[in-house]
Amino acid sequence: MTMTEPPPAMEPQPINLASSPATGLYDWLATSDHKRIGRTWIHASLLMLLVTTIVGVLIGFEQVDASSVDIFGGDNGYFQLWGLYQFALVLMVAAPLMLGLAMVVVPMQVGASNIAFPRAALAAGWGYVLGTGITVVSVLAGGGWGALDGVSGDEADAIALTLLGTGMVVVSLLLGAICVATTVISLRTSGMNLMRVPLFAWSMLVACAVWLLTLPIAVANLAIMYTDLRGGPLTFGNPEGSDAMYAQLAWILDQPQIYAIAIPALGIIGSIVPVAAGARQIAHRPMVAFIGLFGLLSVGGWSQPYFANTSDEILYIAFGIGIVLPVFALIGGAVATLAAGDAPAGLPAAHLLGALGAGVSLLFAVICGAMKVIEPFDLIGTSAHGGLMNLTALAAITAALAGIWFWAPKIGGDFLPSGLGRLVMLGFIAGALLLGAPQVVAGFVDAPNLMLFDTEDSVVNAMSLVSAIGAV
């Protein structure tokens, strides 16, 4: 037979259904494909974002006029949903959304065929889904992180479920972080050292390292409270009512720990801007160093106001002020890269708009955080805490959404509409600034972080109204 002759016809082979790839629900429960695993995290966290947004809007309405608008059925119901909003925004939306995006994108950025420990990543994803569901249902059933009007027997059971669900979410985040960090460390393509990895992959390595160093402390906090509630002296589950459970976990929502969820946002900005500008990232190695510095200054857990007042310690003040430097440097690097490139004229693409907006929100957050640690401003214990948390968390979520639009072909196989993307990004940027900044301003006139009553202060009332608009 010569090379020009066609090959002999092949006999049709029967399809072996037992060896064909699984589809449907089973595939979602048993897949080892990093893209599908990542999409599980992304879909679940976006659904939780919708739930959290609804709760946030209701809280905003309640704060505008607490005396005439009793949406939650009393102070205790308001406190429980207020706690759900804060912990959900950070632990059940921002962090898992970043992890899901990383599970899709990071293996491709470092040249790996799959994520490290794909079965563990899948188990972590479904553990996060289950833990989030338990937490939300238990809060709606009367649970939460403490009770202001006393803890009855039924409430103790619901609170125990809340602690269990929160613990499942945190452990799932830790397991997912191990998978992503191991991918960057061990599965990089030959010749790619850590100084040469793309900025998003590097930022995820830094973020995962910080989470692995700090979130186990939250697991210990939860274990202590659960043990106390079930058989201890009821230090935290006081039958007379207490917010001690929330207070023991509040360090997750405050600086420096709150900045840890925004570490990947810096990597997303560093990945999107050079492509949009059509130029190489200016000073790539210094950008790597500044992301590492930002991560170092985001390490929390050592600062827990419930156990010890650290607000006047030099280390706390240095962390709060010093973290402004890497954010300024990274935003400056992004602006310089845009200036050096040849970005197309006209409206910016949705992902570029989201990346730049996330940078602005994060810059506002760290500036507010720096003011919070300066004693003459006296912002400790005020609504500035909530403003800082909202600005940081929404900056992270905006950056993650920009990443979803940017890497949409890799995530779902197709581009997302640019016009819709611009509306989404503008909505989140405006929402972050309108929601968070007024809370910081209200902190200057001593508005409390948890507002259970109306006030005659016109500044506080005006800022509450603007925050409610931002939540919407």
What does this protein look like?
The chain contains 16 helices and no strands. By secondary structure, the protein is mainly alpha-helical. Helix 3 runs antiparallel to helix 4. The radius of gyration is 24 Å and the shape is globular. The N terminus is likely disordered.
Structural class: mainly alpha
The helix/strand series, from N terminus to C terminus, equals: HHHHHHHHHHHHHHHH
**Overall number of strands:** 0
- Quaternary class: single chain
How would you sum up the global shape? globular
> What is the mean pLDDT?
86
- The residue ranges in which pLDDT falls below 50 over 5 or more consecutive positions are 1-22
The major pleated sheet works out as:
none
- Ends apart, CA distance between termini: 74 Å
Amount of beta strand: under 5%
Radius of gyration: 24 Å
Q: How much helix, percentage-wise, in residues?
A: 55-70%
Number of helices: 16
